[in-house]
Design the sequence.
């Protein structure tokens, strides 16, 4: 506060450098949310052009903000089915919904689990498509030696307070190896700034403030430790619930590929299990209660059924998990689930 600069100042610049270094990319641009990070990455990469009805393929099992970001950019969200083990986009299902209007694929690293980036990037390369990672739930996750944020043309992060790296308010960032793309996001985030509108660029107001950047710089130092803590709590659930009869546990594509933003299992009697846990004072949630391809806002006549996502949606249950949950608490949750199953 004594510095007297509150928006897009030295703290934001320093955080952008540190976040780019952490992700292993050449640049990062701070913006005001994960939704704007996705949308500006789609525009700055050239994947979605204004008023052209460009199609972007994504997952039906994610927050509505993923698809809203595509609409906000001026594109059309198209949904493909998911893999039942990892809950992330299935590359062969993606390939089946590609049309001449498809311009990009937006995989979501859901619940902290990396999508199958090698297969998705291979499909994208064959069809000349841009790939934008929705890494809002996967800060620090790694696959094949690379971190989320460094696996595609660009990636978007959210720093919503509950994320693995969360601010004390809203925030987001785009990361990319393409320095011109990052510079373009920096122009677009200040659409009312003379250089942008005089050049005829249709930007918006999406700035990261200094307070959030300063707080994120401090919290970034703990991110690896917190992710490790999330993994060790997930191991407790994995080990104790392995013998559950009907419970299907989440699986990690590779040990470091999951940062357990959420621990999401499946149970055929999910709602009764939730009531049983609630009766013991244990809160669970459903991420997400609605599949996006079934929502009026995103419906299109061409959209087919997505049987895997539709099957999984009725069974998913998010168990309590955050870095400050104690091991005893995790064991107690597991005990109550085993009790329900016995
Ligand atoms: C997967 C995913 N994508 C996008 C977003 C949007 O981020 P924000 O809430 O910062 O706009 C979120 C978080 O809400 C998210 O979890």
Sequence:
């Amino acid at each position: 506060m004594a510095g007297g600069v509150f928006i897009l100042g030295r703290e934001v610049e320093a955080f952008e450098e540190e976040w780019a270094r952490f992700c292993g990319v050449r640049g990062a641009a701070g913006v005001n949310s994960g939704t704007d990070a996705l949308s500006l990455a789609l525009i700055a990469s050239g994947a979605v052009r204004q008023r052209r009805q460009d199609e972007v393929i994504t997952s039906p099992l994610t927050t509505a903000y993923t698809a809203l970001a595509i609409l906000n950019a001026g594109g059309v969200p198209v949904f493909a089915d998911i893999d039942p083990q990892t809950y992330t986009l299935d590359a062969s299902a993606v390939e089946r919904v590609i049309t001449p209007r498809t311009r990009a694929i937006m995989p979501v690293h859901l619940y902290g689990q990396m999508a199958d980036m090698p297969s998705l990037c291979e499909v994208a390369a064959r069809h000349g498509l841009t790939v934008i990672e929705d890494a809002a739930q996967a800060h620090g996750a790694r696959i094949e030696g690379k971190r989320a944020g460094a696996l595609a043309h660009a990636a978007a992060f959210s720093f919503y307070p509950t994320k693995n790296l969360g601010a004390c308010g809203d925030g987001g960032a785009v990361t990319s190896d393409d320095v011109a793309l990052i510079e373009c996001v920096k122009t677009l985030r200040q659409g009312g700034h003379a250089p942008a509108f005089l050049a005829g660029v249709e930007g918006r107001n999406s700035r990261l403030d200094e307070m959030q950047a300063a707080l994120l710089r401090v919290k970034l130092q703990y991110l690896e430790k917190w992710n490790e803590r999330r993994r060790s709590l997930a191991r407790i659930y994995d080990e104790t619930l392995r013998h559950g009869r009907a419970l299907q546990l989440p699986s990690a594509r590779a040990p470091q590929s999951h940062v357990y933003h959420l621990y999401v299992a499946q149970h055929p009697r999910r709602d009764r299990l939730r009531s049983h846990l609630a009766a013991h004072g244990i809160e669970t949630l459903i991420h997400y209660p609605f599949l996006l391809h079934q929502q009026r806002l995103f419906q299109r006549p061409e959209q087919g059924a997505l049987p895997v996502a539709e099957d999984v949606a009725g069974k998913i249950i998010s168990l309590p998990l955050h870095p400050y949950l104690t091991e005893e608490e995790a064991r107690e949750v597991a005990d109550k689930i085993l009790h329900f199953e016995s």
About this structure: The radius of gyration is 20 Å. The chain has two domains: 10-220, 223-341.
